[in-house]
Amino acid sequence: MKIALLGTGLMGSPMAKNLAASGHEMHLWNRTFEVANNLQFEKSVHLQPADAVKDADVVISMLYDGPVTSKILIDEGVIDATPKGGLIINMASVEPWRDRKHAEAIIDQGKLFFEAPVSGGVKGAEDGTLTIFGAGNDRALYVARPLLEVLGRLNFLGDYGAGQSAKLANQLIVAITIGAVAEAFKLAESAGCDAATLRDSLRGGFADSRILELHGERMVKRDWEPGGRSKSQLKDLVNAMAVANESNLDLPLASCIEAGFRNFIEDFEGGELDHSAYYLWLEKRSAL
């Protein structure tokens, strides 16, 4: 199958490699040409997104955010250039209303659309173990399933918008838990407890989690190389709070963690660091 993948950054690059390894013919586009070209798929890196998709059976969009995704799909002609009957899968995290809009535009042209934002970070993308929040109609699900199962575990949530809403719920849990682990480490350290020893002690108890395992380890090792950038975390928190406001929901923990990441990014230049660097933000605040 011919697959066009748009966006070969931290997540898109390993996803492209896994799809190629499963036997698919890959066509790539990235805003920075050199990033896609470094993947060394011969004669398959394109300068324009519409050129990458014009002969594709399936188009996968893995772009930074909602506005960028709409710009590439709609304004730069990707939807128009995708062959009739082709499938477009949006795996980026965007506002739920935006993917409903994408679905309308794509289906109106006689093409298929499937919504499939992911969780699992770079490690999940590399290992093919992403959690995928799928939404769309039955036909799109049927075509998308075998491809997405190469990349991870597909969960079907329902109609358009449901997958993006589930991803936002996921991001609230991730961000709040990162904050809880970081603050717990700082509390214990203030009383003379070693963070690495604390992390090991918590494993297997009620406080254990994937966040404690992976992001807690990053905090102990002070490894801020991004698996998930703090600016991406904030983007998802902003989208989650917008959905909450639309439904008149008061989410106190979500509001606090959004404010924390915003301060880290805007006042402490933390946007490009891994979101586990919330721990570093606590240090910087304490040093003021």
Structure explained in plain terms:
- The chain is an alpha/beta fold and 288 residues long.
- The protein folds into 2 domains: 2-160, Rossmann fold (3-Layer(aba) Sandwich); 165-286, N-(1-d-carboxylethyl)-l-norvaline Dehydrogenase, domain 2 (Orthogonal Bundle).
- It is 56% helix and 13% strand.
- The chain is built from 14 helices and 8 strands.
- The chain has helices spanning 12-21, 33-37, 49-53, 66-75, 78-81, 96-108, 121-127, 138-151, 162-190, 195-202, 210-221, 230-246, 252-268, 278-286, and strands at 2-6, 25-29, 58-61, 87-90, 112-115, 118-119, 130-136, 152-158.
- Strands 1, 2, 3, 4, 5, 6, 7 and 8 form an 8-stranded mixed beta sheet that branches.
- Helix 1 (12-21) links the parallel strand 1 (2-6) and strand 2.
- Helix 1 (12-21) packs parallel to helix 7 (121-127) and helix 9 packs across helix 13 (252-268).
- The chain is globular.
- It starts with a strand and ends with a helix.
- The model has no long low-confidence stretch (mean pLDDT 95).
- InterPro entries: 6-PGluconate_DH-like_C_sf, 6PGD_dom2, 6PGDH_NADP-bd, HIBADH-like_NADP-bd, HIBADH-related, NAD(P)-bd_dom_sf.
- GO terms for molecular function: NAD binding; NADP binding; oxidoreductase activity.
- The active site is at 167.
